[in-house]
Write a structure and sequence with these properties.
43% of the residues lie in helices and 15% in strands. By secondary structure, the chain is α/β, with parallel strands linked by helices. Helix 6 packs across helix 7. It binds nicotinamide-adenine-dinucleotide (NAD). The site of nicotinamide-adenine-dinucleotide has 25 residues, from helix 10.
């Protein structure tokens, strides 16, 4: 069994982004800029935003966080996004989800200029992903594809079982795998007999949010396991959706939690923001 080391790869990607930032500044005088909207006081959201900000600092991006109270109005968020759409110093706009219940999240995501949609959540970019055209791809599944490529794992013709079908993880994960010629199955909470499906898979990619959902008897010998879940165990430790201790004895490759997909997500946010900045720079020349 080999560990797919997302931490090591993310550091390598960060170094590349940092050197591309220097080149972009030298050529165009432009510094990539990321704006983050953080609504409410959820500690996990605040922690994620803090990590993203630190990563921006490490690679030399300009970044700004708009912190807004839990009871913020739809209009106030919309106005902030409109401002950032117009702001030439901002290349990427990220809205930390989830938003509070009074907010229409779809409307908010649709308001982001698709050329600044570094999370890849705008329906324009979703459509481009599904039709296999260049655009912005959600960071977590994009990070998974990079990690597989780093270890020369070709998904072409492989049976891939994606467990979890959200717009930010499972669905874009399935699209990327399909675009790379894998045979893809998507399972979710209403899937009957999950084990029947996972047992057929050469690669299981799980992003659900249930501790120990994937157990040893659900995995065929030599399978590749990508654990996207992030959960807080009773002892306070971060764990994924896979029973790592027992499943790791059976599989060929596995991502750890932490240190697997999580750091790759942040690395892809940096890479998407750099891409947006490079595109904006070439448009203004
Ligand atoms: P979500 O709640 O939007 O979606 C969960 C999905 O899992 C749904 O499609 C649901 O049908 C499915 N599901 C729920 N229970 C199930 C079960 N028992 N069996 C099969 N399917 C089941 O969640 P999300 O935002 O997609 O996040 C999923 C997980 O991925 C969470 O643990 C989250 O913390 C993690 N996540 C990690 C990263 C990262 O960077 N590693 C990024 C985003 C999300």
């Amino acid at each position: 069994m080999q560990i797919l080391d997302g931490k090591a790869l993310s550091q390598k990607i960060e170094q590349n982004v940092a050197s591309e930032v220097i080149t972009l500044k030298e050529k165009t005088g432009r510094t990539p800029g990321l704006a983050v909207i953080l609504v409410g006081n959820d500690p996990a959201s605040a922690a994620y935003v803090g990590m993203k900000k630190k990563a921006c600092d490490r690679v030399g991006f300009y970044s700004v966080t708009h912190e807004m109270p839990e009871d913020i109005s739809q209009d106030a968020i919309e106005n902030t996004i409109k401002m950032m759409n117009q702001n030439p110093n901002i290349d990427g706009i990220l809205i930390q989800l989830p938003l509070p219940p009074q907010i229409d999240t779809t409307k908010i995501l649709e308001l982001v200029d698709p050329s600044k949609d570094v999370d890849g959540f705008h329906p324009y970019n979703v459509g481009r992903l599904v039709t296999n055209l260049d655009g912005f791809v959600p960071c977590t599944p994009l990070g998974v594809m990079e990690l597989l490529a780093e270890y020369n794992i070709d998904v072409k013709g492989k049976n891939c079982c994606v467990v979890g079908a959200s717009n930010i993880v499972g669905k874009p994960m399935a699209s990327l795998l399909l675009n790379a010629d894998a045979t893809v199955e998507i399972c979710h909470i209403f899937t009957d007999d999950l084990k029947k499906h996972t047992l057929q898979a050469d690669i299981i990619l799980v992003g659900v949010g249930v501790i120990n959902l994937i157990k040893e008897d659900m995995v065929k010998d030599g399978a590749i396991i990508i654990d996207i879940g992030i959960n807080r165990a009773q002892n306070g430790k971060l764990v994924g959706d896979v029973d790592f201790e027992n499943v790791s004895k059976k599989c060929s490759y596995i991502t750890p939690v932490p240190g697997g997909v999580g750091p790759m997500t942040i690395a892809m946010l940096l890479s998407n923001t750099l891409k947006a900045a490079q595109q904006h720079a070439s448009e203004s020349h």
